[in-house]
Amino acid sequence: MNAYEEKVLEELKIWEIEMCKRPSLWNKATKSVQTKINEKIPQKVHDVITGSMKQMIKATLIGSKYTTKRTIKFTADLRERDYKFQDRLAFYRKTAAVEGAGTGAGGILLGLADFPLLLGIKMKFLFEAASIYGLDVKDYRERIFILHVFRLAFSDPHKRKEAYENVVHWKETITKFPEHPNSLDQLNWQELQQDYRDHIDLIKMLQMVPGLGAVVGAYANYHFLDDLGQVAKNCFRWRLLTDEKNKRNIIKKHPY
User: Who contacts 130 (Cβ-Cβ below 8 Å, separation ≥6)?
Assistant: First the structure.
């Protein structure tokens, strides 16, 4: 292991502390308010939103696996992968900001359209990031890993430690899913959509306010992608550094 990889491991230890720390008083207060709001929403509404988000994500997963191209050599070192990742993250942050500004300037109707558009940008980014770090995004098991990365990035602070452990103990987590693409149905989709909505709801409501929409939309989307990027980078770094068996097999099959 070279000096750069040793440095990354130290960064991953700090990240682990961040992911596993207890929720703050602010997190607890916010959760209490969000829980009361969600309890007042009829279950039928939750079911509709959950079904819509499930279909949007599954459609994105199916589409992205065919449009994502490998952009870096199999034998590239971690430093090179990190550099490529930062370049693509910058691109997607700008893309999300432009999309947020455009939909935010259009009022309530276009503001509502921002939800599926931003979700699509996030999923496409995760597929490309996974490819940069050597994951085979055509493998449905890796697509499940990508979903766990997404869940960790937008998880409820009270559930973040569990979401983190599902990622770092991936070999155990993946055994819970049948060896079939339909294993995506095993995910708790309502919990996923509710945590995601709780994470973005407040600022997205501000995006629909006349006169503020464009500015708020651009700022919010930029930072949502940045937050997702930091979590994704560490998840994929962890996979690359810990899955030594897979790493050796890749180099053996593609010695160039």
Answer: 137, 142, 145, 146, 149, 236
Planar angle of CA 148, 149, 150, nearest 5 degrees:
90
Spatial distance between the Cα atoms of 216 and 100, rounded to a whole number of angstroms: 8
**Tokens, residue 126:** 């995760």
CA distances to 27, 152, 184, 251 from 160, in Å: 12, 6, 20, 34
Give the domain extent around 90.
42-253
Residue of 97, 130, 126 whose CA lies nearest to 224: 97
User: pTM of the predicted model, to two decimals?
Assistant: 0.78
Distances (CA, A) of 236 to 10, 27, 33, 247: 15, 27, 34, 13
Q: How many folded domains does the chain comprise?
A: 1
Does residue 101 lie in a domain region? yes
**29 occurs within a structural domain:** no
Q: Could you tell me if residue 20 is inside a domain?
A: no
CA atoms within 13 A on the CB side of 202: 8
> pLDDT tens-digit profile of 170-211?
999 988 876 665 666 666 776 777 677 666 655 555 555 555
Task: Note whether residue 3 is domain-resident.
Answer: no
